[in-house]
Write a structure and sequence with these properties.
By secondary structure, the protein is an alpha+beta fold. The chain folds into four domains: 27 residues, no CATH class; 200 residues, tricorn interacting facor f3 domain (Immunoglobulin-like), CATH 2.60.40.1730; 80 residues, Zincin-like (2-Layer Sandwich); 126 residues, Neutral Protease, domain 2. Helices cover 25% and strands 26% of the residues. Strands 6-5-9-3-2-12-15-14 form an eight-stranded mixed sheet, with no helix packed on it. A four-stranded mixed sheet has the order 1-4-8-7, with no helix packed on it. Strand 5 and strand 6 form a beta hairpin. Helix 4 crosses helix 5 and helix 5 crosses helix 7. The chain is globular, with a radius of gyration of 24 Å. Its EC number is 3.4.11.2. InterPro entries: Aminopeptidase_N-like_N (IPR045357), Aminopeptidase_N-like_N_sf (IPR042097), Peptidase_M1 (IPR001930), Peptidase_M1_aminopeptidases (IPR050344), Peptidase_M1_dom (IPR014782), Peptidase_M4/M1_CTD_sf (IPR027268). Its cofactor is Zn(2+).
Length: 479
C-alpha cells in the first residue's frame, strides 16, 4: 500500500499522536513525515490466486508441532512463524484454513479472526510491527483438515491408515499457517506426533524420535529454505531404506498398506533415486540440496509431486523411471529455482518434462529432437494443445498437457536454434544465477538471448505467447 505524505501543518500533530500510542517511527522527522501502520495485504500479488501469500511480511522459518489421530483424522498443533515486517503493520495475515484457538506475537496475546471464506488468518498484535523488525507469531489450532476447501480444492489426502500432505499449488494451509506463495521461501522444521508403531516421513533429515508411552514424535528438518507447498509429511506404516551415493545421503520410504507385490515394485523404483540424481547432475551440475529421497504412498493421489528433497509418488510399479526423473529434475527447476508467479509454471513443468526427454536420449530411447518432431508432426494445428498460451496459461490450465509438452518442445526447439553447447550453457547459467531464488519467463528469455548472443524475441513469441502452432522454420528451431 502506498501512503500519501501529510501536509507539513499536520506533521507535528501526527508525531504527537504516534508517540501517545507508542508508534513513534524513525521516519517521523521534518524530512520524512510519520506514516501510520497499515493492514498487511491479504495477498502477495499473484493474479491467478489473489489471496495466496500476504503483504508486509517476509517469513524466515516455520517450526511446526502437530499431532495426528488416524481414527478421527483430526490434526492439532502449534506453529511458530518467525518473520520480518516489511511495512509498518497494525495487522497481518497468514494463509490458514483450520480452526484457531490462540495467537501470540512475541509472546503477547494477539487478536485474530478468519476472513475471506476462512482462508485468511488476520492477526492484530498488541502493538504494531515496524518495518525491518523481526517477530515470532505462534498459532495454536485443532481441526479436521478434510472439512476445508479453498479455490475449489480439497487437498487433504488421508485414509484410516495413512495421511500424506502432497498437492500443488496449495497444500500448506491444511496443516500449518504460512505465507503461501513461491516468492517467500523459509526454513521448515517439522515435529509430528503419532501413535507408537507408526512412521512419519518429511523433508530433509530425520533429527530424532521421542518415544512416549502411547505416541512417538518424529522430528525432521531441512537444511535449505523452501516454498510452503513443497513442505510435507506422511504418516502411516512405511518400509524405509537409506544410504549414501557418491557422498549424497538418501532416504526412501514405501507404504506397507500396499500389497506386497506393489510394495516391492515401488521400493525398486524408489531405490533408483540416487542414481537418477547422479545422472541429472551430469547435465545440470551439482544437486542443490543436502539430502535426497522419495516416498510412495498407498493413497491413490493420481499424481506425483516434487516435495523438496523427497518427492512423493503414487504406486506405479518399478518401470516408471521417467516419473522419478521428472520429480527429481524439479529439485533444480521448481524447488531450487521457484517460479516468480504461478503464470511462470512452464519453467517448472516444461523443464522437468524436457529432462525426461533428455534421459531417454541418453539411455537408449528416442532423442529429444525426435520427440519434438513427433509432437509437431502428429498434433494438428486445430488441436487444443496449441490453444494454450504457455507463458500465461491461466489458473485453470497451469497443469494443462501443453504446459508440460509444449514447454518441453520450447526447450528442445531452443536447443536446435542456438546449438547444443549454448543451450546447456543457458540452463546451467539459469540455475547458477537464480540459485535458491525465483525466476520468471521474461528473465529466462533475456538470459537465453544474452548467453547465446541471438535475438530470440520472435522465437519465444511463437512458442510461449502465441495460441497457435508455431510455423515450421529454422528461426523457430524446427529444422
Amino acid at each position: 500500500m502506498t501512503s500519501r505524505a501529510m501536509p507539513r501543518p499536520l506533521l507535528a500533530a501526527a508525531i504527537c499522536a504516534a508517540m501517545t500510542v507508542g508508534l513513534t517511527s524513525a521516519t517521523a522527522t521534518a524530512e520524512a513525515p510519520f506514516v501510520a501502520p497499515v493492514d498487511g495485504a491479504s495477498g502477495i500479488g499473484d493474479p491467478y490466486w489473489p489471496l495466496d501469500g500476504n503483504g508486509g511480511i517476509d517469513v524466515t522459518s516455520y517450526e511446526i508441532r502437530n499431532s495426528y489421530a488416524f481414527d478421527t483424522k483430526r490434526l492439532a498443533g502449534r506453529t511458530r512463524v518467525e518473520l520480518t515486517a516489511t511495512s509498518d503493520l497494525r495487522s497481518l495475515s497468514l494463509d490458514f484454513l483450520l480452526d484457531v484457538s490462540k495467537v501470540t506475537v512475541d509472546g503477547a496475546a494477539a487478536d485474530f479472526t478468519k476472513t475471506d471464506e476462512g482462508h485468511e488468518l488476520r492477526i492484530t498484535p498488541a502493538e504494531p510491527l515496524l518495518a525491518g523488525t523481526d517477530h515470532a507469531v505462534v498459532v495454536s489450532y485443532a481441526d479436521h483438515p478434510a472439512s476445508h476447501s479453498y479455490a475449489g480444492e480439497n487437498s487433504w489426502l488421508a485414509t484410516s491408515r495413512e495421511v500424506v500432505t502432497m498437492n500443488e499449488p496449495h497444500m500448506a494451509p491444511w496443516w500449518f499457517p504460512s505465507n503461501d506463495h513461491p516468492q517467500d521461501k523459509a526454513m521448515v522444521d517439522v515435529r509430528i506426533r503419532v501413535p507408537n508403531g507408526r512412521e512419519v516421513i518429511s523433508n530433509g533429515k530425520l533429527k530424532g524420535r521421542q518415544v512416549g508411552k502411547r505416541s512417538t514424535t518424529w522430528h525432521w528438518r531441512a537444511d535449505e529454505p523452501m516454498v510452503p507447498y513443497l513442505a510435507f509429511f506422511a504418516a502411516g506404516d512405511f518400509t524405509i531404506a537409506k544410504g549414501v551415493h557418491k557422498g549424497l545421503p538418501w532416504l526412501v520410504a514405501v507404504s506397507q498398506a500396499l500389497g506386497q507385490v506393489d510394495e516391492d515394485a515401488s521400493m525398486r523404483l524408489m531405490r533408483k533415486t540416487p542414481a537418477v540424481v547422479a545422472g541429472l547432475e551430469k547435465d545440470l551440475g551439482d544437486y542443490p540440496f543436502s539430502v535426497v529421497g522419495g516416498l510412495t504412498t498407498s493413497i491413490n493421489s493420481g499424481f506425483a509431486l516434487e516435495n523438496q528433497t523427497r518427492p512423493t509418488y503414487p504406486a506405479v510399479g518399478s518401470s516408471y523411471t521417467s516419473l522419478v526423473v521428472h520429480e527429481l529434475a524439479h529439485q533444480w527447476f521448481g524447488d531450487d529455482v521457484a517460479v516468480q508467479q504461478w503464470r511462470d509454471i512452464w519453467l517448472n513443468e516444461g523443464f522437468a518434462t524436457f529432462m525426461e526427454w533428455r534421459w531417454s536420449e541418453k539411455h537408449g530411447g528416442r532423442t529429444a529432437a525426435t520427440i519434438l518432431d513427433d509432437y509437431y508432426s502428429n498434433v494438428g494445428a486445430e488441436s487444443d494443445f496449441w490453444q494454450v498460451t504457455v507463458a500465461d496459461p491461466g489458473a485453470a490450465k497451469i497443469f494443462d498437457d501443453s504446459v508440460y509438452g509444449r514447454g518441453a518442445m520450447t526447450l528442445q526447439a531452443l536447443r536446435n536454434r542456438v546449438g547444443n553447447q549454448d543451450f546447456w550453457r543457458i540452463l546451467r547459467t539459469w540455475i547458477r544465477e537464480q540459485n535458491g531464488g525465483n525466476g520468471s519467463s521474461e528473465e529466462f528469455e533475456a538470459l537465453a538471448a544474452r548467453v547465446s548472443g541471438e535475438d530470440l524475441t520472435g522465437f519465444f513469441t511463437a512458442w510461449l505467447r502465441t495460441a497457435a502452432k508455431p510455423a515450421k522454420s529454422a528461426d523457430n528451431g524446427l529444422l
